[in-house]
Design brief:
about 250 residues, mainly alpha, 11 helices, about 80% helix
């Protein structure tokens, strides 16, 4: 498994997909800063302690991060099909399920790293603006929130990745679908308790961004389990498809 993951990492060195992700991170930070400091009006939200940390966490998840994760994930999965490298795998005794699992783990690592970079960037801005209110406890609380959200958004986005690869769409389609998928959060969020079943909202709930009761957390957890089961089914079908080709 370790060898498979390292092999996937080496493939990415020849790709520009990571630069797209980096550009996405920069744009999130710039847009959140623009909204907080230059949106106009009498209130400058960006000067409120912790506003930038929460703004990056919520607005990034609702508008951009699922799309970045989906684009990366679809690219990792689709390249064998779209770049016609499956023929090369015919002469190598390769374990298809193990290869697919390594790709899933790579996307998980990418999602976690994405949120970690966002957290550190947002925390540095907070440190510049409000160093007097920062503490070890604050750092640990937000680090935990971002880490949980990184895992939860990965799970929430995984069905999109699996649908794209199962239907044989181009990996850029994953970005489009995920952007629509995350944008719908704005409208679903007004539905009350039942909204916690929507995967993106469930991710924000489990991370602690939304204040919630035990029922809402349970609904969010059930949403994550449903995403995993649905994704596992599609991955199994995709594995059969690759086996038949090889």
């Amino acid at each position: 498994m370790r060898t498979s993951i390292l092999c996937e990492f080496n493939k990415l060195r020849r790709s520009k997909i990571l630069f797209v992700a980096l550009f996405g991170i920069v744009m999130i930070l710039v847009i959140v800063a623009a909204q907080g400091f230059y949106a106009g009006g009498d209130t400058v939200y960006g000067m409120e302690p912790e506003w930038f940390l929460t703004g990056v966490q919520s607005l990034g998840t609702m508008y951009a991060i699922p799309g970045i994760i989906a684009l990366f994930g679809c690219y990792v999965f689709c390249r064998e099909m779209q770049e016609d490298t499956l023929k090369s795998l015919q002469i190598i005794p390769i374990d298809i399920p193990a290869m697919l699992l390594s790709k899933i783990l790579l996307v998980l690592i990418f999602s976690a790293a994405l949120y970690l970079i966002l957290f550190l960037s947002a925390f540095i801005v907070e440190a510049i603006l409000h160093v007097q209110v920062l503490s070890v406890g604050l750092f640990g609380r937000y680090l935990t929130m971002y880490c949980v959200e990184g895992l939860s958004v990965f799970i929430a986005t995984l069905p999109v990745i699996c649908i794209v690869i199962k239907t044989g769409q181009d990996y850029w389609m994953g970005l489009l679908i995920a952007e629509i998928y995350s944008f719908i959060t704005i409208f679903v969020g007004n539905l009350g308790t039942v909204s916690k079943l929507y995967p993106i909202i469930a991710a924000l709930t489990l991370s602690g961004y939304y204040e919630s009761n035990y029922i809402e957390k349970l609904l969010s957890l059930l949403s994550m389990i449903a995403c995993l089961l649905f994704s596992a089914f599609l991955i199994k079908e995709y594995s059969k498809k690759m086996d038949s080709i090889i």
